[in-house]
Design goal:
The protein is an alpha/beta fold and 460 residues long. It has helices at residues 13-19, 42-50, 85-103, 126-139, 159-167, 182-188, 194-207, 225-238, 269-285, 302-308, 349-357, 371-386, 391-397, 402-408, 412-417, 438-443, and strands at 23-24, 57-64, 66-67, 79-80, 110-118, 141-152, 172-178, 211-218, 242-247, 289-291, 295-297, 313-315, 318-320, 326-330, 335-338, 341-345, 363-368, 388-390, 421-424, 427-430, 457-458. The strands form 6 sheets. It has a 9-stranded mixed sheet with strand order 10-11-9-8-7-6-5-2-14, sandwiched between helices. A 3-stranded antiparallel sheet has the order 15-16-17, with helices on one face. The protein has a 3-stranded antiparallel sheet with strand order 18-20-19. Helix 4 (126-139) runs parallel beside helix 5 (159-167) and helix 5 (159-167) runs parallel beside helix 7 (194-207). It is globular.
Length: 460
């Protein structure tokens, strides 16, 4: 069912005060990673791989967990590599894992999308990246229109690497920008000029990488509405196809390098709210369409057309056009999703390499999906992607009734009373002025909310 695309509406401050401070999952999966356990073993993963139907298309995720320096806001699983040797050793293990996984399927799987995440995937040498892509093409069958995406630090992107990305068939690059404010950059240990970003953008396009995405963050130390506006203004000069706009998640208990950030200069909830709204309004006024909670895309972009058609999806990379039900993850901490559930590799780079070198898969934990999990995952994905869900349609696909789901969603009654959502018949819709609280709505259908322990990022 097509989805109406709205411009950002005025966001009610009373709702922000009531719900904005909540710590909630981003719902890139359901159940979320804190609920994975060691009950899912290497043997489990082997069995799941062997059962993938030959006609199924799959997506691949490859994690490169290295950076040359640490950005203090970072929430990724990465480590600092000042020398090339640790990266080369890791790549050797990554290639062996690819070969092992491929050996557990009946024939080469058809690949629809590939995503290189980090860390900084472009920390590898151009020849190493070419070797990795060649191996993937040997072990898998790339579909003619397969999308190959990679995350990039523009500060250290060489001309040689840009040319190799184009030659290897990379179709989309995601450039970390975060903020162009020099005061903010100093506070997060990431000095990046507009000129560096422009050179990377122009060089990638010249090399044949046509899809360009910028990553922005609000809620950073010393950040203001004015500095966010200036960053957006500069980004618009380069006209990226997409932008991802995330709120900074300050969790120093789990990311110790974030302790270098002075909490006293972090914007409060009200200012985070204003920053997010200003960025959204500035981008939509410039012709971008808001995609779900935190993505923006040009009208002709495939994300925009997918949302308009009701075909938008959500996975560990955020909003996506990827229609594959199977995602195979490679590398330390990488998460995969198969029909039966989730699998996650050992998060430690050294232990990951040791496991692979011993001839074993690096599976450390995972989760076997239940029928109730699949139902709730479907509901949550539609809420996160469309800001609405037809419970009758979704429940029919899962052989249950909307009344059963609504009865268990106790928190939903408060959200309805507060005007965050409307329920008309079996169609649940997030109100226009509460769309920034869509994670709060999704959490009403999360059977595990409040039981995971770790602190999530703030709802706004």
């Amino acid at each position: 069912m097509p989805v109406n695309i709205h411009q950002p509406a005025h966001l009610r401050s009373d709702l922000n005060i009531r719900y904005g401070e909540e710590r909630l999952p981003r719902y890139t999966s359901y159940p979320t990673a804190p609920h994975f356990s060691a009950a899912i073993t290497q043997q489990t993963y082997r069995q799941w791989l062997a059962s993938i139907p030959q006609e199924r298309t799959v997506s691949l995720y490859l994690h490169i967990p290295f950076c040359r320096s640490m950005c203090w806001y970072c929430g990724c699983n990465t480590m600092i590599a000042r020398r090339n040797e640790p990266v080369a050793e890791y790549l050797a293990a990554l290639q062996r894992e690819i070969e092992m996984v491929a050996s557990h399927v009946a024939q080469p799987l058809k690949v629809n999308q590939i995503h290189f995440g980090g860390g900084t995937p472009t920390i590898v040498e151009p020849a190493q990246f070419a070797d990795l892509m060649n191996l993937l093409r040997q072990k898998f069958t790339f579909l003619p229109d397969a999308e190959v995406a990679i995350e990039i630090d523009p500060r250290r992107l060489t001309r040689e690497m840009m040319l190799e990305l184009g030659a290897s068939g990379v179709t989309r690059a995601s450039l970390g920008v975060q903020s162009f404010d020099p005061v903010v950059q100093q506070a997060i240990n990431r000095i990046q000029s507009f000129e560096d970003t422009a050179a990377a953008t122009e060089g990638l396009r010249a090399a044949g990488v046509r899809g360009i995405n910028f990553d922005l963050i609000y809620g950073l130390p010393h950040q203001t509405v004015a500095s966010c506006f200036d960053t957006v203004r500069k980004c618009l000069q380069l006209r990226p196809d997409r932008l991802s706009v995330f709120g900074y998640a300050h969790v120093p208990t789990f990311k110790k390098h974030q302790r270098k950030i002075d909490e006293a200069v972090l914007p409060d909830g009200a200012n985070r709210h204003l920053q997010a709204n200003m960025i959204a309004c500035s981008l939509t006024n410039a012709g971008y369409r808001q995609i779900g909670l935190d993505h923006f895309a040009l009208p002709e972009d495939t994300l925009t057309t997918a949302q308009a058609a009701g075909n938008l999806h959500r996975n560990f990379q955020g909003y996506t056009t990827d229609t594959s039900d199977v995602l195979i993850g490679f590398g330390a901490s990488a998460i995969g999703r198969l029909d039966q559930g989730y699998v996650q590799n050992d998060a430690g780079t050294r232990s990951y390499c040791t496991q692979i070198d011993s001839g074993d898969l690096a599976t450390r934990k995972g989760y076997a999906l239940t029928a109730d999990d699949r139902l709730r995952a479907d509901i949550i994905e539609r809420i996160m992607c469309d800001f609405r869900v037809d419970l009758q349609q979704v429940c029919a696909r899962h052989g249950t009734k909307p009344s059963d789901v609504l009865q268990s969603a106790i928190r939903l009654h408060t959200l309805i009373a507060d005007g965050v959502v409307h329920l008309e018949g079996h169609v649940l819709s997030v109100t226009d002025d509460a769309r920034h609280l869509v994670r709060s709505v999704a959490s009403a259908f999360d059977a595990y909310i409040g039981t995971s322990g770790p602190v999530y990022s703030r709802a706004v």
